Amino acid sequence: MKILTLVRQVPDAEARVKITGQNVDLEGATLVIDGMDEYGVEEALRLREGGGGVEEIVALAVGPKRVEDALRTALAMGVDRAIHVETDQKLDPIALSRVVAQVAQAEGAGLILVGGQEADWDSQALGAATAERLGWPQLTWTNELQLEGDTLTGRHDVDDGNESFRASLPAVVTTQQGLNEPRYPTLPNIMKAKKKELRKDDLGQYGAQPAVRVVNSEIQTRARLNKMIDGKDPQAAAEQLLDLLRNEAKVIA
Amino acid sequence: MILIVAEHAGGKLAKSTLEMVTAARQSGREGPVTVLVLGQGVADVANEAARYADQVLVADLPQLANYNAEVWAAATAQIAQEGEASTVIIGGSRSGREYAPRVAVKLDAPYLEDVIQLSASGNALQAQRYTYLARVTETVEAEAPVIVVTVKPGSFAPAAPAAAAGEQYDVELDLPAPRVEVTGKSVEKSSRVALTEADVIVTGGRGVGSPENFATYVEGLADRIGAGVGATRAVVDAGWRPYAEQVGQTGKTVQPKAYIALGVSGAVQHLSGMGKSKYIVAINKDAEAPIFKVADYGIVGDVNQIVPALIEAARK
């Protein structure tokens, strides 16, 4: 069985986001593998190490040239090879799922792992849209996963708590915190990764067109009052805060 | 028609459904506002929905007793196609955002996800949504015969009942068998007000010190002022509190009138889940904690000293 793991490149959570013109400008920002996708890469490696009959792990990324760095990280973590669909065009998740589904089919993947919510789009759509295109079931917000033969079992979060599940491959699993602790690439593995295959594809061959256009982006920071209360006298500080909450903000009775 | 898929639980319509009715009416998209009720034994929910919508479509079927992404997507897409919906509106809950993309693919429709504002301009639909861990507000636009939208909870005012009750119609559906088998379920119940509906939230971070302190100070203050209880990821990872209380990128997004953060440092991932709160209060002994940058009221001090005084003062 072959696992396809999706890798996206996003600004580091601590990086400052800036807007140039109407769009987010990533020039100069520190870019990293999306943490949510990193859980997916790690989980693929663990499923193989756990003896789940995993023949090959392939990482896929779609995006500009720089996205290679995220794929190199995945290769250094231990995936076998990478596919980079290089494009400067921005695809929405529904359009992107068209590419992912076609790659999954061409590769004969039995399991797709993808982050539960991307840190740039704040979207949860990619896994579900890919599953629908392939006609596969999906398991979202997974925080525990086992593979035996072609049966997946595990646990995932739902609206009002969590559920244990069982499903058969092929399937799409979206990953999140708590699933595992991703490993750091070691120097020897980083060196080895340089020799691994990183195939370049052209977006044109997948016929994916965005259906959603970004009209404008703004950084809206709400002006905060930033009133600091001296905490040296806890009693006085507590009373002052309570007074502000009751009489200025009017948020408590 | 504008098709809204009702969110409901325990035989009651969720507030999010009324918020979606408002979004539909404000959107300027064409057609009667139609609520689709999926489930089993949902007559009460359908009657309630009829007070707000132009019409209600009811699928009361045993196959719909439990939510399943593939089944819900199939049901929604069939009704949208048969009714020639211009817009399909689904709740921005975990489940809604799980099956809505499947509906979009089935209908070959653009998908606007987790939106906070909607307006039609000609044949196009414009929406606002947060991106980059809620640091950016993006305006997006799509133009198509049918567009699928999920609405972020708490972004629209709940609709008031309409003058006349909408007509109800039973619908037939051709549904797939669910392929994911649920083998166990654990429902996280809390006696307190639900986090996403609370006007005031008291949240504790690692700075609170221990699970015992969390119970004494965070829960103690929340109970005193009738607030919901939240926790940071660090606290949940440490096993002090259940995941259901987690606020942030991987937990819940909340937007209360007041958010009181006790011993919370204010990581970006946490801010993305609570940064839109009306008033933010921070109590932390580290004067450099990033949470103070977004706070309306801040106290640099020890939670263990300030909070007992606060609980005591709130008694008066």
UniProtKB/TrEMBL annotation, chain A:
PANTHER family: ELECTRON TRANSFER FLAVOPROTEIN BETA-SUBUNIT, ELECTRON TRANSFER FLAVOPROTEIN SUBUNIT BETA
Name of the molecule in the record: Electron transfer flavoprotein subunit beta
Family: Belongs to the ETF beta-subunit/FixA family.
GO-annotated biological processes: carboxylic acid catabolic process
Physiological role: The electron transfer flavoprotein serves as a specific electron acceptor for other dehydrogenases. It transfers the electrons to the main respiratory chain via ETF-ubiquinone oxidoreductase (ETF dehydrogenase).
Biological classification of the source: Bacteria, Thermotogati, Deinococcota, Deinococci, Deinococcales
InterPro entries listed in its UniProt record: ETF_a/b_N, ETF_b, ETF_beta_N, Rossmann-like_a/b/a_fold
Cofactor(s) essential for the protein: AMP
Pfam families referenced in this protein's UniProt entry, alphabetically: ETF
Domain Electron transfer flavoprotein alpha/beta-subunit N-terminal, residue spans: 21-210
Keywords carried by this UniProt record: Electron transport, Transport
Origin species: Deinococcus metallilatus
Subunit structure: Heterodimer of an alpha and a beta subunit.
GO terms for MF: electron transfer activity
Automatic annotation (TrEMBL), chain B:
Domain (Electron transfer flavoprotein alpha/beta-subunit N-terminal) ranges: 2-182
Residues that bind FAD: 206, 232-233, 246-250, 263-270, 284
Keyword tRNA processing: no
Cofactor: FAD
SUPFAM superfamilies per the UniProt record, alphabetical: Adenine nucleotide alpha hydrolases-like (SSF52402), DHS-like NAD/FAD-binding domain (SSF52467)
Pfam families: ETF, ETF_alpha
Cofactor, free-text remark: Binds 1 FAD per dimer.
Gene3D superfamilies according to UniProt: HUPs, TPP-binding domain
GO molecular function per UniProt: electron transfer activity; flavin adenine dinucleotide binding
CDD domains membership: ETF_alpha
Key words of the record: FAD, Flavoprotein
Keyword Flavoprotein included in the entry's annotation: yes
Annotated GO biological process: fatty acid beta-oxidation using acyl-CoA dehydrogenase
Family: Belongs to the ETF alpha-subunit/FixB family.
Protein's name according to its UniProt entry: Electron transfer flavoprotein alpha subunit
Native source species: Deinococcus metallilatus
Organismal lineage: Bacteria, Thermotogati, Deinococcota, Deinococci, Deinococcales
